[in-house]
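Quick one: structure tokens for this chain, please?
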Amino acid sequence: MALTWKQLTTYELPSKQPNDLSFHEPWRLVCESIEDATDLKIAVTGEWKVKGNDVLKCGPNGLLGFTLAESELVLKGCPFGALLGKIGGSSAFHKESTTTSAADQLFAIGAYCTLKLPEETTGPLFIGFNALARPIEILQMKIVVSSGRIV
């Protein structure tokens, strides 16, 4: 058995765009559908910050060593500002789910993530940030999403 990868999408927000690159919503749609995959691979580069606060600038892995109350984080045990993901569910749901449903279950993406998907996983891929503070100003971001299938 071999795992074969297929690139699904590249989501990119270049720096110095004339429009506002603020991220106000809890989750942003990156890929409309993840289906017929056993695994997911996500590679990320970029930099972002809570708007108006240059001290809290970070990249995909978040601000390592920065201490913040867990009540201010979306996903406990993950650094402030780290890139998060979820498959399915709502674009409005903002904190860790207490349900056992696969929808709205959050995972850390960071700079590189591979994820074994539960059987018959389908739905959109959303990204968010491990910070309840908004807006998040995206200085630059590139996300490459690939799906894997065991053949």
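The CA atoms of residues 21 and 98 lie 31 Å apart.
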